Amino acid sequence: xxxxxxxxxxxxxxxxxxxxxxxxxxxxxxxxxxxxxxxxxxxxxxxxxxxxxxxxxxxxxxxxxxxxxxxxxxxxxxxxxxxxxxxxxxxxxxxxxxxxxxxxxxxxxxxxxxxxxxxxxxxxxxx
Length: 127
What we know:
By secondary structure, the chain is an all-beta fold. The protein is built from no helices and eleven strands. The strands form two sheets. Strands 2, 4, 5, 6, 9, 10 and 11 form a seven-stranded mixed beta sheet that branches. β5 (45-52) and β6 form a beta hairpin. The mean pLDDT is 96.
């Protein structure tokens, strides 16, 4: 079992930046991929970004590509989501996720691929 703890959410004006961090503990050695999903009020939980743990391949949703950057620090078992040029539509609860098995590029965008989830951190972007 992997435990995930997010930090770094908050309130920012449109065009601003925020940095989310997620620390993994427990069976962190079993992680294949880590990433982020988000859920806005009344909407489904959507894929944001993912990074493979060994080779560092990155994947992004079209809505954040070019604005968000995901990175990882293997030594610290931490993944970071740098969010720039934020828009009001980025407002959501952001969840850190981890997968303990390899998955296809398409599967990485689905919630079922991930077996560990953080509690979530609120990101609010004002217009």
